Amino acid sequence: MDFTLSKEHEMARTLFRDFAQQQVKPLAREVDEIEVFPRGTVEKMQKLGFLGIPIPKEYGGQGCDTLTYVLCIEELSKVCGTTGVIVSAHTSLCCDPIKNFGTPEQKEKYLRPLVTGKKLGAFGLTEPNAGTDASGQQTKAVLDGDEYILNGSKIFITNGKEADIYIIFAMTDKSKGTKGISAFIVEKGTPGFTFGTKEKKMGIRGSATYELIFTECRIPKENLLGQEGKGFGYAMQTLDGGRIGIAAQALGLAAGALETTIAYVKERKQFGKSLSKFQNTQFQIANMATKVEAARLLVYKAAIAKETQKKYSMDAAMAKLYAAEVASEVTNLAVQLHGGYGYTREYDVERMMRDAKITEIYEGTSEVQRMVISGGLL
Amino acid sequence: MKIIVCIKQVPDTNEVKLDPVTGTLIRDGVPSIINPDDKAGLEAALRLKDELGAEVTVISMGPPQAEAVIREAFAMGADKGYLVTDRAFGGADTWATSSTLAAAIKNLEYDLVITGRQAIDGDTAQVGPQIAEHLDIANISYAEDIKVEGEYVIVKRQYEDRYHIIKAKMPCLITALAELNEPRYMTPGGIFDAYREKKITVWGRNDITIDDSNIGLKGSPTKVAQSFPKSVKASGQVVSFDSEESATFIIDKLKEKFIF
């Protein structure tokens, strides 16, 4: 058992770190403050292939693995949680299901532009009455000749309005319950597909979170993803992968807060010496670093499990559960060690603390992760 | 069109410190990078590749671990890579280095050779022009802009107070300034290919034609007498006066220091 990264993973980490420090960090505060989607950063990442990292080269992707993708999300999220989730939602929730369940034609038409930087992706499962209980889908899709007609709405959709291609779940046969749910690929601009309100959020404020509204929205029959009635399974499988992306985002937020705090406590002086000379600071930093490292090992293990194991649901759930809770705890301690300054927007840790909370909620709450883990054991 | 770019692995001098006792560089734990001027030269070559379809070959002389900079060049888009490494080449000064690199380049085909102006761990700015001499080709130093027109390169050469526009027939050698461009990032897929698909050709003593008197420590006429860190300057004083008061203030200060 070897816990060191390969040379290619080390070099990839250097690339992601350089990019994050040089291109993402300088904008992070403004992105949060004025709640603006970092379109320019997304375009730079598209050019560099960051939006197709684990997708095979045959579809135009970078042909790397899940661990490389995780390193990217981690480094981006160290400096900007918003940028991390944009890449995660696009890759895990939109590219991955098309790669896994799409036809060769769908891969050519939708996956290739998504990973070669021409399009951005999103995923719509959650509804006002179908959150953690995703089986309660009320959006309907009815086959009418060569088209499905979609009616209903989705909420809390990351990359909403900014994305070009959406994976949308809808009931094709309500009598069959979860076996009546199907998945569809819907393009922005399709008549009957509009956007509702933009959410005003506590954190990740630059990520566009919108309501999607479908009113007599007609999509071609060939945009059904996989088989009719299999949508719920596709959603659950997709979220297993998505959780690894969010776990990496949580890890990045915690690691970023730790780095920032280490620098701060060495600088800041009270009672005639730097904060780092006080044993309370030393012990808190030791606890934070240990938890960040434990989270990192779980997240990397889940990433490797996705590549090598048939089933990795439990690995992904453990990684997300632990990393998300560590992110909340470590960013909270980071603010505490910064004192009053940490509570102001002049310092990044207050933003990191606000960004961290969502990682315990989206793509399966911490409670759902505990259900998945215990479900695999009991 | 074939372009050879010479790149050197150097310690990141932003992170490097001098041992105050011995006066030598403390290299332990210091990250290694492609020398910034060389990286700009590589970027210039890659832009010519994007524009004209050139083949870009990188060549580096150094210890075996210098392969990392060739992998990085692959990940940025270089096509071929050569590592010139042998115990016999160790301890080389600029003469032995340029002789060795030129001997290696003679094994290859090229229209253009690009080197950095100078390395941040040596600052000699001699290796590039010396390679041109060994290869008996024209040399244009301090390139700030490079264009190719047919068989010619047109280079904007930076001087302290002006610049020259120089046109030269290829083959020729250009030394590049870090200011030449903003080098591109690697791509994730490029990094994977660099390690998993692309091969580095390693050349040792017997793969190049050169006399023993021109390689390694024994082939190096330079002798380093002493290395020392730059002395730390005292911090300045900022004052705000009108011109007459300023003159009086400066003169008073000079008198205070017995300079005036």
Main interface by residue count: A-B, 19 and 15 residues
Number of helices of chain A: 10
Quick one: biggest sheet of chain B? 9 strands, mixed
The helix/strand order of chain A is HHHHHEEEEEEEEHEEHHHH
Determine the mean pLDDT of chain A: 97
β-strand amount of chain B = 25-35%
Helix content of chain B: 25-40%
**Cα radius of gyration of chain B in angstroms:** 22 Å
Rg calculated over all Cα atoms of chain A: 21 Å
Instruction: Give the tally of β-strands of chain A.
Output: 10
Give the structural class of chain B: alpha/beta
Percentage of residues assigned to helices of chain A: 40-55%
Strand/helix succession of chain B: EEEEEHEHEHEHEEEEHEH
Unreliable runs of chain A: none
Shape of chain A: globular
- Average pLDDT of chain B works out at 91
Please tally the helical runs of chain B, counting DSSP H or I stretches of 4 or more residues.
6
What is the terminal separation of chain A in angstroms? 28 Å
Strand order of the largest sheet of chain A: 1-4-5-8
Task: Characterize the structure shown.
- The complex is a heterodimer of chains A (378) and B (260).
- In chain A, 52% of the residues lie in helices and 16% in strands.
- Chain A has 378 residues and is α+β, with helices and mostly antiparallel strands.
- In chain A, a hairpin with a 2-residue loop joins strand 2 and strand 3 (147-158).
- Chain A starts with 6 loop residues before the first helix and ends with a helix.
- The mean pLDDT of chain A is 97.
- Helices cover 27% and strands 26% of the residues of chain B.
- Chain B has helices spanning 36-52, 67-76, 94-105, 127-135, 188-196, 243-256, and strands at residues 2-6, 9-11, 17-18, 25-26, 32-34, 55-61, 80-84, 112-116, 138-149, 152-158, 163-169, 172-176, 200-203.
- In chain B, helix 2 (67-76) packs across helix 5 (188-196) and helix 3 packs across helix 4 (127-135).
- The mean pLDDT of chain B is 91.
- The chains are: A alpha+beta (378), B alpha/beta (260).
- Chain A binds chain B through residues 6-8, 11-12, 15, 18-19, 48-50, 53, 57, 61-64, 68, 72, and chain B through 68, 71-72, 75, 185-189, 191-196.
